Amino acid sequence: MSDPTRGTVTGGTPGLHIGVDYYPEHWPESRWPRDAELMAGMGVDFARMGEFAWHRFEPRAGNYDFTWMDLAIETLAAHGIRTVLGTPSAAPPAWLIRKHPEILPLDSQGRRTGFGGRHHDCQSNPVYRRYIRRLVTAMARHYRDNPHVVGWQIDNELGNSHDDLCFCRSCVHTFQGWLAEKYGSVEALNEAWGTAFWSQTYNSFAEIDAPRHTVAGKNPSQELDWKRFCSDLIVDFQRLQADILRRECPRHFITHNLMSFAEKVNYYDLARDLDFVSHDQYPSGFYLSGIDPARSAAQLDVVRSFASRPFWIMEQQAGISGWGVMGRAPEPGQLALWATQAVAHGADAVCFFRWRTCTVGTEQYWHGILPHDGEPGSRYAELAAWARAIKPQLAELAGSMPRVQVAIVYDYDQYWALSIQPQNPALRYVDELIYWYRLFYTQNITVDFIPEGRALDGYSLVIAPLQYLMRPEQEQRYRNYVRGGGHLILGYRAGVKDDQNRVRAEAPLPGVLLGELLGLRIRDYDCLQDAAVSLRAAADADNHADPAGTGTIWADWIELRGARPLLCYDGYNDDGPAVTVHDYGAGRACYFGTRPDQQTLARLLGPLLAELGLNPDPAAVLEVIERATATARWRFRLNHSAAPQDGLPPYGYDITRLDP
Ligand code: GAL
């Protein structure tokens, strides 16, 4: 995908490292030069603009006005600041909605959502698409030769804002076509969806509806296909714009701002049509969640993993977050630390959201670098100092990647299937990934996330938590990986379902092939709800006084068929095995029939991590991570604590260049 003439070999255009999200349409023109001057004063290289300004670009159908943006671009360019343009499809204007109210999405209960927020759009609607095609073409033609425009962000956080996407006639019709292409015949679909249950059998594709609100329950196979369809629809929606931009602006890059673990669209798929992915990083969350550096790190790692290359941060937290209610103020140093964390995990450019805190609209309290009054204050000072210090380093290390030996399988089909039937009410797919991720994060071992199907051989350890849907090809892949010397960890609920979200029943869990690989079979199981069971190390099987910890969420009742127990239940299920290991071929396969508490997990796997040469540091107090090229290596040390640690001040960081 990378074309050197677009300058996106590394995911960064040379010389573009520090950016701000700027909304000239929110401020009088007379203010723009002052903004540009202040931006330049803090080392800003580029601004992202325009992604919600549809009405300013097209105040009336077909009447385009680019003069205001031309002026904004020029004003910034006079200070050496270049422009990334957003296509404004996330905010269809009132005149368009009034003319074509069918663009507004229908929710699963058949209610039409109103105008007044954003993303009030049906992604399949042909009229909406026609207007977008016209506007994006006009914008692309207008800006393709503007020397200050370097690239495009398509729409904004596709999939965000939509609860259910849309259940309108156009979407249902498109869904039917998608199903016909997938299954070929309605009989094949009936078989795949198990429609014999509750007399749901269809005589033709035309009878099939979207899984809207029902009196009782839904078909899980239909629901899974619907989620897959919605994801494909979003990918197609992005492609519509990407194709125009590629054709009209061959010198510009194309990106999109993702949201790490959001589940509406398969980001591995979305990334394929982009030169590089971008991401919006808000470590303190919308306002509710506490700050969790491990989760923030996982969010960055997953974004790096989508296209296996460095990325941009298109929105980096610049102050207090929140819409109607606000989160806590970041501590002095924290904004710079968070931005450094993004770079450490693979960002080649960091763009701050937003330049100045808005005085109107929904986001009046989502704070930017400048406060409401527009005068530089403490956030400006902190981020200006940060930008000055890191820019030369960013210029050098752009394109570098961490060297990674551990992969966690992160797959949308699993995510979707488990959101449809979560098994245990407390089980969340992403939380399960983070549970595993934390084991590595706390010991400074870097992790990639990989989709099913990606090659495993480069990794010495692969964790596949909640491998709930199991395709025969994936089973083979795991088997070959372990045979060839790989180390694999599978968790409870592995192999329960097939690709169509039907229970696999040809053999007891985890199925024939996985059973052979893991050296066990699962006699029965127990959803623990909110109960916990005691665990102890298998070697201390007689030492009831020394429980190793507790298991929660799930308990498999395991029958050993060649595997050895590592942890056993204590006072539960006849003290049978809870966690096992099996030597298989040249490698090893572990199985977790329950979720041990985090400390027990670390104690249990410590020796394996050391044996695999992963250099675990169980006593780590700092986050330490490296990026490398063939010729250089950079070590980042980050102190997320309010106390000085290991020579770093509270919320401090350092970056050291090392020999390769
Ligand atoms: C992001 C979004 C921005 C802005 C920000 C703060 O998710 O892309 O446009 O809304 O959140 O709410």
Overview of this protein structure:
- By secondary structure, the chain is an alpha/beta fold.
- The protein is 31% helix and 20% strand.
- Among the domains are: 206 residues, Rossmann fold (3-Layer(aba) Sandwich); 36 residues, no CATH class.
- The strands form three sheets. It has a ten-stranded mixed beta sheet.
- The longest helix is centred in the middle third of the chain and has 29 residues.
- The two termini are 28 Å apart.
- Bound molecules: beta-D-galactopyranose.
- The site of beta-D-galactopyranose (GAL) has 7 residues, from loops.
- The site of beta-D-galactopyranose has 7 residues, from loops.
CATH topology of the domain at 406-611: Rossmann fold
Label the CATH architecture of the domain at 406-611: 3-Layer(aba) Sandwich
CATH homologous superfamily descriptor of the domain at 406-611: Class I glutamine amidotransferase (GATase) domain
Helix share bin:
25-40%
Taking pLDDT < 50 over at least 5 consecutive residues as the criterion, the unreliable ranges are 1-12
Number of strands: 22
> What's the gyration radius in Å?
26 Å
Largest sheet: 10 strands, mixed
SS-based structural class? Answer: alpha/beta
Oligomer: single chain
Intertermini distance: 28 Å
- What is the overall pLDDT average? 95
Can you list the ligands bound to this structure? beta-D-galactopyranose
Shape verdict? globular
**Counting H and I runs of at least 4 residues, what is the number of helices?**
17
**CATH class label of the domain at 406-611:** Alpha Beta
How much of the sequence is in beta strands? 15-25%
Biggest sheet: strand arrangement: 11-10-12-13-18-17-16-14-15-19
